[in-house]
C-alpha cells in the first residue's frame, strides 16, 4: 500500500474514532431499566456531524452570552499545542544530551546514573511542579529577581516554566529509551568497523550512533506524547492556563469536545507524519562509516 494512502486511511480512521468517542457521554444518559441509551447516542452523533459541517455557526456560553466558537477556539488550542510541542522538544534534546554524557562515563558509573533517574521518576509530577514554583517564589523573596513568570494573569501568558514542568517526566522516559537505543547501536557491526578504523569513541557517539538512535527515539516518542496529554490538564490548572483542556472542561458538550480534540489532534498527526517521512529519508543513508 502506498505510504500516502496508508497515512490517509490512518487519519480518516482516527477522526472517525474521535467522533465516536465524542458522543459516548450520551450513551450513558439512559434512565429506567436500560443501562445504555443508543438512540441518544445516535442523536449525539448526528449533532456532532452537523456541527462539523456547520462549524461557522457554532457558539458557546461566555459569561451568560453566546459567543462564536471560531475563531475563539483557536487561541486555547494554539496555546496548548505550543506548550506540548515545546515540552516534547525540550525533553527530546535534554534526554539525548544526557544519554551522550552518560555513555561517555566509564561503564561502572552508568548504573548509578540510571538508578538516580529511576528514583527521580518515582516522584509525583505535581510535587515537582510545586517545588519549582516554590523555588521561584523563594528566590524572588531573597533577591527581588523574578526568574520566570509561573502563573498567567488576565491575558498574560507563560511558556517556559510550564514547558519545563511538562517536559520533566517525558525527559526521563525518553532518556531511558535513548540509553537502551544507544547501547543497541554500539553493539552493531558498523561500530566495530569504525573502531577498527581508529575512529574515536566520541566521534562514533556524536555522529553515527546519535543519528541512528535519534531517529529511533523519535518513533518511540509517539507513546510518550500520550503521557504528556494526561499531564497537560494538571499543568494548565496549576499555572492558571486557559488552554484546550481548561476550555473543554468548562464547555463540555459532545460537539465542542469533538471539535476541540480534532483541532488538537490534526496538527500533531501532521507533524509526526511529515517528520517521520523526512527522518526515513535521512535513515536511508544507512550505517556506512
TrEMBL record:
TM spans (from-to): 7-28, 77-105, 117-140, 160-182, 225-243, 255-274
Cytoplasm found in the keyword field: no
Cell membrane recorded as keyword: yes
Domain ABC transmembrane type-1 intervals: 115-274
Keywords of the record: Cell membrane, Membrane, Transmembrane, Transmembrane helix, Transport
Gene3D superfamilies membership: MetI-like
Cellular compartments annotated: Cell membrane
Membrane topology: Multi-pass membrane protein
SUPFAM superfamilies: MetI-like
The protein's name in its UniProt record: ABC transporter permease subunit
Taxonomic classification: Bacteria, Bacillati, Bacillota, Bacilli, Bacillales
Amino acid at each position: 500500500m502506498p505510504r500516502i494512502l496508508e497515512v490517509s486511511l490512518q487519519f480518516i480512521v482516527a477522526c472517525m474514532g474521535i467522533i465516536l468517542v465524542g458522543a459516548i457521554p450520551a450513551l450513558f444518559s439512559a434512565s429506567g431499566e436500560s443501562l445504555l441509551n443508543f438512540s441518544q447516542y445516535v442523536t449525539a452523533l448526528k449533532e456532532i456531524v452537523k456541527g462539523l459541517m456547520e462549524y461557522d455557526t457554532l457558539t458557546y456560553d461566555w459569561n451568560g452570552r453566546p459567543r462564536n466558537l471560531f475563531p475563539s477556539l483557536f487561541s486555547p488550542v494554539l496555546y496548548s499545542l505550543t506548550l506540548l510541542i515545546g515540552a516534547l522538544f525540550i525533553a527530546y534534546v535534554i534526554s539525548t544530551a544526557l544519554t551522550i554524557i552518560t555513555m561517555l562515563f566509564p561503564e561502572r558509573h552508568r548504573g548509578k546514573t540510571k538508578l538516580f533517574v529511576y528514583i527521580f521518576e518515582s516522584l509525583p509530577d505535581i510535587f515537582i511542579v510545586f517545588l519549582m514554583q516554590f523555588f521561584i517564589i523563594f528566590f524572588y523573596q531573597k533577591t527581588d529577581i523574578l526568574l520566570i513568570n509561573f502563573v498567567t494573569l488576565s491575558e498574560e501568558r507563560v511558556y517556559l516554566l510550564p514547558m519545563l514542568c511538562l517536559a520533566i517526566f517525558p525527559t526521563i522516559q525518553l532518556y531511558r529509551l535513548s540509553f537502551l537505543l544507544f547501547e543497541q547501536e554500539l553493539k552493531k557491526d558498523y561500530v566495530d568497523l569504525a573502531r577498527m578504523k581508529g575512529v574515536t569513541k566520541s566521534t562514533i557517539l556524536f555522529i553515527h550512533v546519535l543519528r541512528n538512535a535519534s531517529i529511533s527515539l523519535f518513533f518511540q516518542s509517539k507513546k510518550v506524547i500520550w503521557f504528556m496529554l494526561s499531564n497537560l490538564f494538571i499543568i494548565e490548572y496549576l499555572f492558571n492556563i486557559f488552554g484546550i483542556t481548561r476550555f473543554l472542561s468548562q464547555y463540555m458538550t459532545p460537539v465542542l469536545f469533538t471539535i476541540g480534540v480534532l483541532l488538537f489532534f490534526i496538527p500533531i498527526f501532521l507533524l509526526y507524519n511529515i517528520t517521520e517521512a523526512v527522518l526515513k529519508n535521512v535513515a536511508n543513508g544507512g550505517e556506512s562509516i
